[in-house]
Design brief:
Length: 117
Amino acid sequence: MSYAYDTIADIIRLAEENNISFGDVVLRYELENYDRSEEGVIREIEHRLDIFEGSIQDGIDYAEKTASGMSGGQAAQLNGQAPRFMSDIAYKAMTYAIAVNEANAKMFRIVACPTAG
């Protein structure tokens, strides 16, 4: 059985066909295509999540402007405020995206998920 996919729709279809979770499809794909154990894949995911979370926190905690003055402080202002005109999850995603962008602009650890483009 191949767990290859090109789209999110493919992942959903594979999950439904095999009665497994979305995450299990991705995990099985990683196991069949890379020379890693399940524990190794999970350890790598946890490591990357730590990096992402650190970048978010840096963007929120370090509110000063960049050297150019073009970026900085917006994530800190948005964090913890009540969302207006959007759902809580969309507001949190927006705040976190701005935080990562601001941390990247300050040349902290550059986080590019999935493409930085």
